[in-house]
Design a protein that fits this description.
2 helices, 3 strands, three-stranded mixed sheet, 36% helix
């Protein structure tokens, strides 16, 4: 995983993991689902790659930041990574 390699190569690096969803369910449900998605990725980085959990933050944008229209909604079911300064 590219993110895990970057974190291992740069011990000072901190990452925000943002969960996103499509618009299939209610906004409230999608906000929770987005956070679950981000938390699952965080847990994977910690358990599989040994990344310190303190270096990883999570949040959800739910359905608020789509990449694609509804015809391509699977593209909206994703996580995004950003560097925290």
């Amino acid at each position: 995983m590219v993110v895990a390699r970057a974190l291992k190569a740069n011990p000072e690096l901190k990452i925000m993991i943002t969960g996103n969803t499509d618009v299939t369910a209610s906004e409230q449900y999608n906000d929770k689902l987005g956070l679950k998605r981000a938390d699952a990725v965080k847990n994977h980085l910690v358990k599989v790659y040994g990344i310190d959990a303190a270096r990883l933050s999570t949040e959800s944008k739910g359905e608020k930041d789509p990449l694609a229209n509804t015809a391509n909604k699977p593209m909206n079911r994703r996580v995004d990574f950003s560097v925290v300064k």
